[in-house]
Amino acid sequence: MKINVQSVNFSADQKLLTFVQGKLNKLENHFDKIIYADVYFKVQNTSGPENKITEILVSIPGDEMIVKKTNKKFEEGVDEAVSSLRRQLRKRKEKLSATTF
Predict the structure, then answer these.
(1) 61: which DSSP letter?
(2) What are the tens digits of pLDDT across the range 51-61?
(3) Which one, out of 13, 24, 27, 30, has a CA that is 20 to 30 A from the CA of 96?
């Protein structure tokens, strides 16, 4: 799977990029036909502490899934987004296996 990370209005450090790579690679355990993943990190100019936006778009054959999370830290957003994507991919895999029989 190809992973593309974009950070808006700041530059992401290597530690965050490695974290994202590790989490997204685990998605392939649940659905092995993932083509690519685009990850967008944005910082909102708000007074609240939850101003970090994480968006992950995953492309699979015939469809795309996108998850958007707002948290205090990008790592939390990645954790929540990957968890949500994992559920969606499992459902998709179950649907595909149910229709092939």
Answers:
(1) T
(2) 999 999 999 98
(3) 24
